Structure formats: structure tokens, C-alpha cells
Amino acid sequence: MHKILIIEDEINTAMPVKEALELCGYSADIARDGEAGLELFREKEYDLVLLDLKMPKMTGEEVLKKIREKDPYVYVIVYTNYGEFTEIKSLTNVGIDGYINKGPDAELQELLNMIQNKLNPLNDEMVKKLIDGIDDWPMV
Amino acid sequence: MENKRQSIKSEVSDQTIEMIDVFKNLSVSSYMMFGEYLFLQGKFTDAAKIYVQFLTQIKDKVHHFKAFADFWKKFSEHADKDEVRKIYDEIVNRFNNDEFSASVKREILFLLYNVFPDETGKDFLIEHSRISQWIRQKDKDKKTWDVYCMLLWQEKHAVHSRESVQKDKYLVSVMEKYELYALAIKMIEHVLRYDKDEVAVRTLFRLCRKVNDYSKADIYVAEHPDIEKRTGFNIQYELVYYYLEKGDETKLMRTLKNIKANAESSLPISRTLQNFYVKIGMIDEAVAMRGHISRLEQRAGRLGADKKVKGLEEERETDDFFWDTIKDMVSEQEHNRQLIAIKEMLKGFSHELGQPITNIRYGIQLYQMKMECGLDTRENLSELLNNILGQTIRVKRLLTRFAPIVSSKSVNTQFNCIEHIKNAFSDMRAWLESAGIKYKVEGIESFILYGDSVQFEQVIYNLISNAVDELKEKEGKRSINVICKEHEGNLVLHFRDNGKGVPEDNLNKIFTPFFSTKDKERSDGGEGLGLYIVWNILKMYKGKIRVNQAYKDGAEFLIQIPAGGNDNA
């Protein structure tokens, strides 16, 4: 079972995400600020981190740098608001695997799809599609 | 027939129009074309004359000079020696008659300097002491070409030693006068090898500034890192331009500070300093310097009695000019600040509103997912609805926080603001006591302001709640002290808490909207609006607020409000 760490100070954002992830068969932990998040990240092995950029104590960017120091390969998806693309640009240099919008564009399903694509690139649906399509494959 | 004639006519006129257009655009180049045409016909002298005429026309467009240089090369190869001599004399003649621009003269010097080497250096070996006399005489006789050649010869061929320093310095000043900057820079480098006095160093920097290329100055600075410590005003003056060009703000500020410290009693230096401040956009410093200058002028005026009345009138004119400039700058800076504030505000708003919207959307979407999965959701429904209502309350809270600024329901009266400060504290007594905080309001008992007293109390409320949040994390004694004073007709408040103070990094940020170090979801605010609102309300009272960095026992906010009051009232 894949483990996901949600670093997010808004409990009302983090809880639905956690529940939805659990419905999809993942396990998820919530950390309410960067320091707590890093502590959890050092203790346990995670497959993916969902990171909010605006938090008290440590900013998302600082947390991201610390995460990358420990593990350059773990998937990290960041939360952004509108108009923070310059931020995204500088973060891609540190290493992020995707970003997701908050606000009126917030889609739980979109977030789940993104996470699923990272963690199970060959999910059931895609395997089914591939197998169904076998008849269309050109004969070698 | 009629048609045919008409068509010919129109063809001709089209061509003529084209020709006219070509010549209009190529007024300088047409000389070149004509010159080339004559040259190809073998009429070398005529061609050269056209080209000399061309030189008088190009003025500051020195890039055209290359055409002449190319021509001269061809010309001196093909024409016989007498022809070359004739044209050379013609050019020298026009040179002496000042028919070329300074930049063209410079180019001519380097091109034609050595055409007749036997003549050009023949009387240049003069005693050092006689050189200025020689130059003055040549100047008088209108033989500038000789002076130019002499200057170039001196730089190239004369021996530069400790003994020649005085002469070389003099030559640099002549070169600068003739705008031979590149030559002057080379010469001053010779001088600086033996003599690093203030005038020489300053000259190097000034010349670099004039050619807009500080590379030689860079070398000097690299070799003499102690230049910053040289206190002479002349050097400091050039250093200001140097650091300005380099964009080195720290050193620029340090240099300005040095000038100020060393030369504050000098009127001309103070004026220079004031102009620097205006140039850099340091408005407060410029205004302070202006006041200082007028004091100096008064003192000088008293000493010089009624020396010049007319001069005083002129001074007043420049005074108006100064204040107009300052006014423009202030309004521009204010405009920029407002734009930035609005931008920050919108950014903060979109984030603050985005958060509850996200929470509502996620809540609903999760509920839908659960329904689709066939889970029993009846229990979750009331939780979801409560959550949504909670989020709308959050939006409401955000909006009401702005009410003190936006509200138009204000009632303006004259009120004793000290009383209202005390009211604000006693309103919050229970809360303060529960947080274990002791408070004291000391100082004057009365100060009258005009405006909305509720708005004024909001300032105190926000400052108190800001202090309470700060003190909550503190162990041991917790206290808030307000000292009220009157100073030059202003109300001055020292608002102190004994918390951990404002970190230096945050000094510039704490009054901007949505800056917060606190947990956003706590019920007691933390959106980062409290101090922003304080700042805004005080602005309506023409008041100011800042953090006193010198205060070390916690945080101290210094608030100053002029008597009178709210200008919106």
C-alpha cells in the first residue's frame, strides 16, 4: 500500500483529501506545518508528498528543499493559488512532480488522478485499455 | 494618343519623386556617393575636396568617419604626394578654423597624425616648464591642430617619470578641454603611477564617467581597495557616481554618509549632497538637507549682510524648483507603493478566499465520491453542511476585518483619545486577565483628536490583540505598557509589550496586508490584517507608526498623530 504525506495547515482541506485517498486504497498522514511534516518524513517512508506552499513557521519551498536533501526521488506535488507561476518556476528547479490549484478550480478527482498516475502508472483502467486495444495493434 | 502622353508624363514624375526622396534621405551619404563617383573618374583631388566637405557635415555621427578613413587610404595610395599634401593642408586649415565637431577632430587626429612624421614632432621637445606657454601661444594663433598633435605625441613618445608628473597633469586638463577623453585616461594612468593625489584619482574617475566606461576605474579600485577610506570630497563625489553606475547600494550609502559627516558645514557640498539625494530618490534625506542648507544660507547671509538682493531672488526660484521636483517624486513613489499594496492585497485576497472555497468544494466532492461508492453518508451530511457554513463564516470574518477601513458609517466628533485608549483596555480586561497579562497606560491625561472615535479604538484593539498573541507564547511575566506623550503638538504613543519583539527580517513586512506568522485557522484572526488596518486608520489621521528597533525589552511601536485629525472627516 502506497503511503502519502499531506503537509497542509488547513485541516479542512487536508481531511477530505486524506479520506478520499483512503477510499482509493492509499494510506495518508497529515502534518499541520513544515516542521511536523519533515519530522514525519524522516521517520517513515513515503511514496508521495502533497505540499502546501503557504504555511506558518516554514514556507513550502523551504520544506521542499529539505525533502529533496533527504530524498531526491520521492514524488512531490505542490498546492498553488492563482498567479503563483513564478513560484512554480523556481520550484521546478528544486524538483516538483506536479502542482494542483486551490480555489474555484479545486477538484478532488483531479488531484486523485494525478496521484494515481504518479504511483500506479499502469492502473487497472489503463491495463484494460491496452488489452482491449490489442486487436488494433498492427501484426508484426 | 492622349492616353499615351499622359502615361509617359506620369512615369517621369514618379522617377523624379523617387530621386528627390533618395537625396533627401541621404544628405550626408550623397557627398560620399559623389566623392566615389569622382574618384572612379580619376579626379582624386576633387573627390577629396568633396570628402572634406563631407567631414564638416557629419557632426556627431562619427560612425560616418569610417567612410572617410577608407577613402583616405585609397586616396593616399593613388594620388601623388603633392595632391595629398594639398588636401592635408586643407584639412588642417579647416581644423584650425574649428569647422569640425570635437568628435570628428578626435578621429582626424588619430588618422592624420603621422602622415608627415618629419613635421609633426619637430618642435615638440620642449622644457616642461615652457609647455603651458607653448600651448597658450598656439591657441592664440589658432593652431589647434598643432596642439592636438602635441598632446598625442606627448602621450605616445614623451618619457613619463616622477619629474614629468606636473606637466602630465597639466596636459590631462588640456586633453579634457579638447574632449580627448581616451587620450586623457591613458595620460592620467601615467600620472597615477607616480602620484596618487586626490586630484589625479578624481580625474581618472571623472574621465571614466564622461566616456561612460568605468573599466579603468575598476582596475584602480581593484588595486587600491582603500579608496573608500579616502575622505577628500572630490574623490567621494566621483565615488558616488561610480557606485551608482555599479549598482552597489551599500557602498553608495556609505559614501553619502561619509560626505555628510565630513562636509556638513560647507554650503556648496551640502547643495551637491542634496542633488545626489534627489537623483537617487532619497526624498527624506533631500528634504532634511534642504532644511540644513537654508540654515547655512541664513548664517552666511547674516555674515555677508545685504550683499546681494538679486541673488536671493534667484535662490528662491531654485527653491521652488526643488520642492516641485520633490513633490513629483513623492507622488510617484506613493503611487508605486499603492500599486504594490493593491497587488499584495489582491494576492492575499485570492489566497484567503481561495482557501474556504477549496474546503467547501473538497467537502462536497468527497461526499459525492462516498455516495458513488455506495457508502452510508447520512451521518456525514450534517458534518458537511456545518463545515460549509463554517467556511462562509470565515469569509464573513475576512470581510468584517476590512470594515473599519471601508465603512462609511463613521461619526466624527472631537474626543479625548487618551480616554479611548483606556476604554479599549478596560473593554478587553477580562481577556487580558485570562491571558495573564498586566497592563498600564501612563503619561498625559488628555489629547484631543477629531474623527471617528470607534475607528481610533480599533487601532488600540488591534495593537492589543497583536501584543496578546505575541505574549501568549511567553513564559513568566507578561505586560503591555502604553506611554502617552505630547511632542511639538503631536501625540506620541509608545506601545510596548515584553514579548520577543519583532525580528529584523519582518520589520518591513508587518504592516503589509496578509502578512502573518500565526496559525490561520485559529478563531482569533491571524489573517495578517491587524497591523495593516492600524496603519490605514492612522493614515487617515495623518499619523505614522513604526517599530522602534532600539527597544530591546520586547516590541515597541511608536505612533505619532498630529493634533487636529482625520482628513477624511
Tell me about this structure.
- The complex is a heterodimer of chains A (140) and B (569).
- Chain A has a single domain (3-136), classed as Rossmann fold, CATH 3.40.50.2300.
- With 140 residues, chain A is of the alpha/beta class.
- In chain A, strand 4 (75-80), helix 4 and strand 5 form a beta-alpha-beta unit.
- The model of chain A has no long low-confidence stretch (mean pLDDT 83).
- Chain A has helices at 11-23, 34-43, 60-70, 85-94, 108-119, 124-132; strands at residues 3-7, 27-31, 48-52, 75-80, 98-101.
- A five-stranded parallel beta sheet of chain A has the order 2-1-3-4-5, with helices on both faces.
- In chain A, helix 2 packs parallel to helix 3 (60-70).
- Chain A has six helices and five strands.
- Chain B has 569 residues and is an alpha/beta fold.
- In chain B, the strands form two sheets. Chain B has a five-stranded mixed beta sheet with strand order 2-4-5-7-6. A three-stranded mixed beta sheet of chain B has the order 1-3-8.
- Among the domains of chain B are: 21-112; 318-406; 412-565, Heat Shock Protein 90 (2-Layer Sandwich), CATH 3.30.565.10.
- Classes of the chains: A alpha/beta (140), B alpha/beta (569).
- The A-B interface holds A 9-13, 16-17, 19-20, 23, 54, 56, 81-83, 102-104, 106-109 and B 347, 350-351, 353-355, 357-359, 361-363, 365-366, 369-370, 373, 387, 390-391, 516-521.
